[in-house]
Specification:
Order of helices and strands: EHEHEHHHEHEEHHEHH
Strand order of the largest sheet: 3-2-1-4-6-5-7
Strand content: 15-25%
Structural class: alpha/beta
Number of strands: 7
Length: 293
């Protein structure tokens, strides 16, 4: 059996601070990570703050009986992030306080993973909050629970079959997930002069990515190179997904891509949108998870 590690983080109390982050995600991240832990063939490590550490110990180790061998909790002070001088130079602190994204966490996805490569054949990053009803339809949220909130995050799609097929799909390359960005526009890119050949038709997402451990150092090097180059030249901070999109387009030979068209699924109702018609021609994100099962 291949040795696999999944790296993630939980910082659920950053909204309104100098870091920025989504509001009201405390239970969401915990129940979702518990669902991801059904990939029992992988070891997990979760980075978190000193403030949250004890409550996460109680939740995972005491209440949910998750072994410390399966899930290691590591305290990390975001002030000590690898890109702190770059972030300090270009961050708009007033804007970030009301933002739902944290630049420190976005960039540390790569640098945290760099710390976890030893002794593992495959390493993946997964956002702790990836398993939830906004991305996954009711038919895959079927595990009964006495906790009314848990049912919205507990999905059957994350399991060892999914993990095995993810590894097989990665082969000797690096997996990225790409959203269609032309018909269903989602995000801009870094300035097009940074691209070897500009193409914005796919937007790489940061929800999960990774692959064979031997390739990670090159990926981390490229991410770091582009992060510093585009930030200094464009005099602004970009989301990690924008840097990843640039990295993908300039080095497509390194990657195997999982494609989807829309975040929405059949149980959602979006004002002004015929969901049944929309899903006839657009592949939902959860279909990637379904296909790997």
């Amino acid at each position: 059996m291949k040795k696999v590690k999944i790296v993630t983080s939980i910082y659920s109390d950053l909204y309104g601070t100098k870091f920025g982050g989504r509001i009201g995600r405390r239970d969401h991240y915990r129940w979702s990570l518990l669902s991801l832990l059904k990939m029992t063939d992988a070891d997990f490590v979760c980075y978190t703050s000193e403030n949250e550490y004890e409550s996460l110990v109680e939740f995972f180790y005491t209440n949910e009986k998750i072994s410390e061998d399966r899930l290691k909790l590591k305290v990390f002070n975001l002030d000590e992030n690898n890109s702190k001088e770059l972030i300090k130079k270009w961050k708009n602190y007033d804007h970030v306080k009301t933002s739902d994204r944290c630049f420190e966490i976005q960039y540390m996805k790569f640098f945290w993973t760099m710390n976890e490569l030893s002794d593992y054949e495959y390493v993946f990053w997964f956002d702790a909050g990836l398993s939830h009803c906004g991305l996954i339809p009711n038919k895959y949220l079927s595990i009964p629970s006495s906790n009314n909130n848990r049912q919205y995050y507990e999905s059957s799609l994350f399991n060892n079959v999914f993990l095995t097929n993810l590894i097989e799909f990665s082969d000797d390359k690096f997996i990225l997930v790409a959203k269609e960005n032309s018909r269903n526009y989602w995000s801009g890119t870094v300035d097009n002069r940074h691209f070897t050949k500009y193409n914005s038709s796919k937007h790489i997402i940061g929800g999960f990515f990774g692959g064979v451990s031997s390739l990670w150092p090159k990926i981390i090097y490229l991410f770091t190179k582009y992060l510093y180059k585009v930030t200094e030249e464009d005099r602004r901070l970009y989301h990690e997904e924008d840097i990843m999109t640039l990295m993908f387009r300039n080095h497509e030979e390194l990657f195997n891509i999982l494609d989807f068209d829309t975040w929405w699924h059949e149980n959602e109702r979006i004002s002004g949108l015929n969901m049944e018609e929309h899903l006839l021609t657009n592949k939902s994100f959860y279909k990637i998870l379904e296909e790997l099962n």
